[in-house]
Amino acid sequence: MQELPVVVIGAGPVGLAAASHLRERGLTPLVLEGGATIGAAIRRWGHTRLFSPWRYDIDSAARRLLEPTGWTEPDPEALPTGHELVRDYLSPLAAVLGADVVRTGSRVVSVSREGIDKTRSADRARTPFLVRVESADGTLTDVRARSVIDASGTWGRPNPLGRSGLPAPGEDAAAAQGLITAPLPDVTGVERDRFAGRHVLVVGAGHSAANTLLDLVTIARQAPDTRISWAVRAADVSGVYGGGDSDELEARGALGSRLRAAVASGVINVHTSFTITGFTPTPTGLTVHANTPQGPAHLEVDLLVPATGFRPDLSILSELRLALDPAVDAPHQLGPLIDPEFHSCGSVEPHGERLLAHPEADFYIVGMKSYGRAPTFLMATGYEQVRSIAAALAGDRAAADDVQLDLPETGVCSTDLGGSCDAPPSPQLISLGVTTTSTCC
Prior knowledge:
The protein has 13 helices and 15 strands. It is α/β, with parallel strands linked by helices.
């Protein structure tokens, strides 16, 4: 067992940080990335800029690996785009770790124990993990591991637009027809012509929604026939504006202030207490059906941009013994600490291996995925998580338990939003949740 690798699922910031800490501890990491490149999910929103400056974006062990190579660390106060994060940090880090450690085009489809299923208890902790991997050509390979760290994020599973946590009737069909876009479209860049001069509805109440709305305002100044609608389930949108000048991440606070001004100017038409019940395609666009306090509503739009956050895909872990919080799908000890009804990014306690542990020994969910449906994740949190886990796997219990984390305060604490505190503001400003989403913070 001790000679087997520690498999890390996902080659994003937290996954590569995990590999860096494991290597520093003398363990053997193996990073399996489903995408064709490292940071595959980040590249999907690479046009956007983080809220978090570089000083929060670089892991300590990763820095120690990079510095002897002649790598030049970016300005700690600069705000990188997603593409810059990959180019200036993740790509050099993956190169240092090596192709034998970081394997792209390797999608993990399931995790179990070798030769036994979920029901078998005898010798379970002493039985290697079996990680089944699908390559780009469809070939399946089984990898044996002493431990597994799931840092695969949540980007691939956006929350549905319908009520009760379910897709609304017609939602999947509308998305297939391109009437509902992917999250975080490049509104002012390569997709500009798709939005200019159209009636666009943004649904959601977090930073991703604010990002898209402000980009649409920019388009509307250039193409005055562009119409912008914004729908939220809440009775008002004041909570979306955040802490303003009280936010320790200046870019994050400024985003809410700009959005407030845009709404006040009338360029954005706000629909509050708007609960979507269905979608009907029309010859020119989409009819969005909803319940409101005034009764049923029907909104005709050309395009809809979803900004309702993400949720974890736990299907690959069905043969493992997990203990998850029933509300947010986070590790059960962590769930109460990050419940979005009570906590913002700056109010979450530091946490490490003990709080992330499951009944399945030596298995951990980290990064954005560890927060389940909670919207309060910051990348620096993930770095401390994997530092603690690597220490525990190396037998350094004192270091594993010595968890410390200094997060920037948000200036506000309350929301019912889904997403990530690091998720996109605009091509001008975004913050990351490893793979991002809308957010409360």
